[in-house]
Argininosuccinate synthase (Candidatus Methanophaga sp. ANME-1 ERB7), 387 residues
Amino acid sequence: MKKVVLAYSGGLDTSICIPLLKEHYGYDEAIAVIVDVGQPKEDLKEATERGEELSDLYKLIDAKAEFVQDYLFPLIKANGNYEGYVLGTAIARPLIAKKVVEIAKEEGADAVAHGCTGKGNDQLRFDAVFRTSGLEVIAPVREMSLTREEEKLYASEHGISFESEKRWSIDENVWGRSIEGSELEDPSFFPPEEIYKWTSSVANASKEAAIMEIGFECGVPVSLNGTEMDGISLTKKLNAVGGKHGVGRTDMIEDRVLGFKSREIYEHPAATILLEAHRDLEQLVLTRHELRFKDFVDRTWSELVYQGLVMDPLFEALNAFVDKTQERVNGTVHMKLEKGAARVIGRESQNALYSKDVSFDAKQEQSGAEGFSLYHGFQSSVFWKLR
């Protein structure tokens, strides 16, 4: 019996893939797998009902803890950011693909599949992980070049019913929420307030500023206002508090892997707060040379995640470097959330390289700097003499 395991979401694309995999690809059994990385409960419920109805076997995997521990914490340590995008969807896709492969091997499947089109980034993220498994990789929507109207017609012919199509395309997990589609495709279109679910507008944000302190150990957030919290709870709390203060909205033009430019809108309060706090703490405890080199490493790390290349050997090497630098990233960062902004207002660490005892306010022999000053800019002075 030929089996295929599908990365299932409950949407139109992946729902029509189930009968397509049987009718057009000749598989006897289609297994639908949905991976919970923090999607809304109502979305998971709807997807479960549809998946159980359409597939031969349906599996719902709770991967939220693994998502935070093995994907979001490394992202924070590497200051994950691609062109201003905090990689919410991008960082989740490799984990989803990994879980699909695990189920495929458990079930003795011959192939893995996804419902991505041939225009977006997700196809590449799934493919890059899938192809390391040795299993056949199938992408029905892409391979058959199906249009949205053709998908709807096929669904109707096979009794797959959907309520009227939603105006906006939403992708959500514990790290962020993306909104696209419809009029938002026009970069000049002003997004209506209705698209936002996690964040208040600056005009409607809380009037009272919020002061908080975030504790870090080895680059990982471990406490909020002195109370130790697990990663999921801390992230959810910061999403709630930050959202009330209008923190974490991004409206940007993004360069996709295939070369397309796209208009993207994101909500990510916790990500904004944690990344700002983490970068500031690094500035306190790492040397200038570490910071400069790590800035290059962080950008490369983020590009690999965006492209879906987390299985590349370079990604493993970058993580090893990042982990080494984070051994000293311990301390507390004090943040102020107010009217859309998340600002650092204080920081402290036992590993701080700053010391008030050697600051320029302290009494010291200033003439010692004269020798350094003599050769500082030496090549520039020679240039101007010869000019």
User: Anything to note?
Assistant: Residues 88-107 form the longest helix (20 residues). The mean pLDDT is 95.
